[in-house]
Specification:
The structure holds two protein chains of two kinds.
Chain A (H helix, E strand, L loop, with lengths): L7 H26 L2 E6 L2 E7 L4 E7 L2 E8 L2 E7 L5 H4 L10 E3 L4 E6 L6 E3 L1
Antiparallel strand pairs in A: 1-2, 1-7, 3-4, 4-5, 6-7
Chain B lengths: L1 H23 L5 E7 L2 E7 L2 H18 L7 H6 L4 E2 L2 H16 L9 H7 L10 H12 L2 E4 L4 E5 L8 H15 L4 E5 L2 E5 L7 E6 L7 E7 L2 E7 L4 E4 L2 E4 L2 E2 L4 E2 L4 E8 L2 H14 L1 H11 L2 E6 L4 E3 L1 H4 L2 E3 L4 E3 L1
Helix pairs in contact in B: 2-7, 4-8, 5-6, 7-8, 8-9
């Protein structure tokens, strides 16, 4: 008699479990790979911009306007009503887990997604 | 034969299901952002309510340790009152005093007379020579007495600007641990990596001091704290000379040791914060010995962009390009 570990029905059962498990895992995998720039004002999310877009967006705050560029080369603040202009001097960020911050306006743009740092020191 | 078959039929599907479910159940993290201690804060935690609940803790700490807050413990000490210190503040001051001794005063927690003259958080200016000399005398003559029950009295004036962010990172890390969660907290660049990110270490970029829109490499951290001091963070130019905010308390002038960035990984936030400032003031050679004394790890970047790392740091840090020289 042959040494049989699995019969045909067992293999079908294994295949069904494999497919179901992959379907269950898929949302988690996709979420980890999604990349976006998250725009916040005073801690609240104003906007979520996929890293694939190429456009400028203007955010009108009570303190004035902030113009942000989102391109494949990175995210940059182009103009701001903030007197310090530190956010503009920071230039373009593309790989940082923490992005561009304006303390006086409490305005920030942070990059998220796989391959991006969890934090930046310095 | 039939036994092997029955065993294989029972175990294999269970094992396969377990492995697949395990791989798909890596924790996800929610991030909350805010502002406190004059800087940007963020908390990444497994639970959304944890991330948002932790941020206000920093404001409470600031109300305790900031000399700018009228009834903080530090402000009251600076006014000559006897103050009962919290354990966290007492330990931070003790560590500060220890580092001050080891650096022969290059770092000092009693720095307010000098930092107030430079006013880097307001209208920075080069202090008058006579005023600076008088301020330095106050710094060098300062002392803190703490009784066994934690009651403290001070001669001099305390400024915890070089310590506070590390203390805040410790506070947030402790809160995460109390909740049994892993996560990453950032207080203006003082970062606490609590546990791991799923099965992986936390990835923390080190900012390039010569181009702050870029990074020079990545730290892989598990249950560790990191802080960076850099001359690029705050500076001004007067009469064609650039002055940065990291003051050598032996001279009262910005430290000139050929460094532009010092990153320290240590077992606590307050230690990493203090050491990153102290090492900037004393330079790489003495700084390397200082790190070793405290079991910390050092990455130093010189004015020409060369990276130097201690042996322990080379195990944690991966440069993006070029060579990292040993300390």
């Amino acid at each position: 008699m042959k040494n049989v570990i699995f019969r045909r029905n067992d293999l079908l059962l294994l295949l069904a479990i494999l497919v179901l498990s992959l379907l269950f895992a898929l949302p988690f995998v996709m979420r980890r790979e999604a990349g976006a720039a998250i725009v916040r004002y005073r801690g609240e999310v104003l906007d979520t911009v996929p890293l694939s877009v190429n456009e400028e967006r203007i955010y009108t705050l009570p303190e004035g306007e902030v113009r942000v560029s989102f391109t494949e080369n990175g995210v940059a603040v182009l103009s701001s009503s903030c007197p310090n202009r530190d956010c503009i001097r920071m230039g373009s960020v593309i790989r940082e887990g923490s992005g561009i911050y304006c303390l006086p306006l409490a305005f920030s743009v942070t990059l998220t997604g796989e391959g991006i740092f969890d934090g930046i020191t310095g | 034969m039939h036994g092997r078959y029955r065993k294989g039929r029972r175990i294999a599907p269970l094992l396969l299901s377990f492995l697949l479910l395990l791989s798909s159940c890596a924790p996800s993290y929610t991030r909350a952002e805010g502002y406190g201690m004059g800087t940007f804060l963020s908390v990444s935690a497994e639970r959304e309510d944890t991330a948002s609940a932790l941020l206000p803790l920093v404001n409470a700490l600031e109300n305790e340790i900031s000399h700018r807050v009228a009834d903080s413990s530090v402000a009251r000490l600076n006014l000559g009152e006897t103050v009962l210190l919290s354990l966290r503040l007492k330990e931070a001051l003790a560590l500060s005093a220890d580092v001050a001794e080891k650096t022969e005063g290059a770092f000092s927690p009693f720095s307010l007379p000098v930092t107030a003259l430079w006013d880097f958080n307001g209208t920075p200016r080069v202090p008058d020579e006579a005023a600076l000399a008088a301020a330095l005398a106050q710094v060098k003559g300062a002392s803190l007495t703490v009784s066994e029950n934690g009651a403290a009295s001070l001669i001099g004036k305390i400024d915890l600007g070089a310590v506070g962010k590390g203390m805040a990172a410790d506070l947030l890390a402790d809160a995460l641990k109390e909740r049994g969660e892993s996560g990453l907290v950032s207080v203006g660049g003082s970062i606490a990596a609590v546990g791991s990110k799923g099965d992986d270490p936390w990835r923390v970029g080190v900012r390039d001091p010569l181009d702050t829109s870029k990074t020079v490499g990545t730290l892989s951290l598990l249950d560790a704290f990191v802080s960076t001091s850099g001359s690029y963070e705050k500076s001004f130019t007067e009469d064609g000379v650039s002055y940065h905010h990291i003051i050598d308390m032996r001279t009262g002038m910005p430290a000139r040791q050929g460094l532009v960035s010092v990153t320290v990984v240590a077992e606590s936030g307050v230690l990493s914060d203090i050491l990153s400032t102290a090492i900037f003031a004393v330079g790489m050679e003495k700084g390397s010995a200082l790190c070793e004394a405290y079991g910390a790890h050092l990455l130093a970047i010189t004015e020409d962009g060369t990276l130097y790392a201690s042996e322990g740091m080379r195990a944690l840090f991966t440069a993006e390009k070029g060579t990292v020289l040993p300390l």
